[in-house]
Amino acid sequence: MNVIRRFLPYVKPYSAKLVLTVILSAIFSFLSAASIYIILPIMGIIFPSTAVSPEAAATANATSGFFDNVKETIRDWISDLIIADGAPHQSLLNMCFLVIGIFLLKNIVKYTSNVVNTGIQEGIMKDIRNHLFGRSVQLPITYFNNRRSGEMISVVTNEVNTINGALVPTLIQLTRDPLEIITILFLLLALSPELTLLAFSTSILTVLLIRLLRTYIRRYSIRMQRALENMTTRLQEAFQNIRIIKAYAGEKYENERFERETKWYTRSAIKHAVVKNLAGPISEMFAIVALVIVLFYGGSDVLSGELRGEELFAFIFLLFSIMTPIVSVVQIPTNIQRGIVAGERVLKMLEEEPERSHGAVDVKEIENVIEAENVTFSYRPDTPVLKQISLQIKRGETVALVGPSGGGKSTLMDLLIRFYDPDSGSIKLDGNDIRNFSLDRYRKLFGVVTQESFLFNDTVRNNISYNAPEATDEDIEKAARVANAHDFITLLPNGYNTVIGDRGVLLSGGQRQRIAIARSIVRDPQILLFDEATSALDTESELLVQQAIEQVLEGRTAVVIAHRLSTIRNADRIVVIQDGKIAETGNHEELLSLNGTYRTLHDVQFKVEASNV
Length: 613
Known about the structure:
Rossmann fold; 10 strands; about 10% strand; elongated
């Protein structure tokens, strides 16, 4: 129950509705019991011969206790409502009207209670989902690097749905069923304390059974959650890579892989159901045993005149009625096992450390320089990607990073925008360690364009103005013009209001990049980061994007990673990074004259480009 307790803060905002639920549950419990207890007078009307013998009545009066007084008080109250002296048919008609009235009111209360409970349940799930998503997007990049996206999606969707089907109904159940049990139990004791004790003598066996099954249910619940997570991951990867699947005729291969995951899930679900569904039938069998015992001993009391026949009938009906909420409560530990497993996974994600901001110092612009001082960084221990890197980037300067693949160029850019913090050394903005700045404010200094333009399944307008609510239509169009995107946007079916599909699939590669460039500048950032923004484009698209980049870079501070050296010839400074270190630095002509790594890269590219002409 520790997991349930951890989710109680999500219940607190709905305390008023929970109180209403308790009140409605109490009314429903009373009406449920009343709808059964009114059998006493009607049985007395139809079967008047079932009265208690005078000797038994005298004994009962002599030993009358609290429950006997309650029983007689309730009987007298109901009798006053329906019994018409000397007119049994009128009494029967009154009884029918009373039954209809009670059941009508009971169902109105039940309907209202279900509506309120649904509001509580869906509200709690909404809050959990919102909190979970809010926390997940605050997690550091390293968290996402080390986990499959399908796994995280499964937590936010499947696991929360499992909680919705287990833990939340349990919280509501715990406010409703115990009230119904207490109400009916009170009436059972009023009718016959002895028969009540006999009836519940088997409860301990049911509890022991449920405790035994709970271990196995938890085991299969964990297997089901893992299988569902793998299935979600496989589904997501297939949809994301559908072009590759079709290009390699991999439909059958992917189908076989997905079938393996669904087969594992199905086997786990069946085993879970086999164990879980044992609890109900066995509990019911114990309940039937209790009923048979009640029938035998209660029938004997009726035959001996110690108990009224209508009281035995009422007792049996009440016993049947109490079994449903009792079985429901007894099965709570069984039913919530999947919810607990899912809850643990959700809590684990909620407890992950968010991205570290460290400081709260506001920052609005770069005044002079951003610099890396003796920066060393590694993704894995003892395997540094950057080694003692020191680099200054002055305001208004364009610095290009080049070098062999895997040298650490993109990693350095990630450190500049603070996706990661250095293992040693520091990155400073105008002399201040960037860890002292508010992370949110610091990142707003940057505009970023990566090799793969990540766009949303939304309109062109909303993609350009992403997280820039202050951007006007004028600002959006201006950014699009600078990015050489305005002309093709106006030719789209709905212009700036055209939805561009998942990841911008309805646009060409060059168009996507130009939208990404427009997005990077619409907020007028202080520093621009371009990570191989043209490397995946054809020659015509590259030319258009490169023109856009050159327009964007005018008068701005920029760091550009380039695979094609021809695109960074005009950079103020070119830094060659090789094996995690700065190997050379200078402008294009200076680096060529060194006859070093840059010259080698240049000559290789020149020969390749010449051979392709």
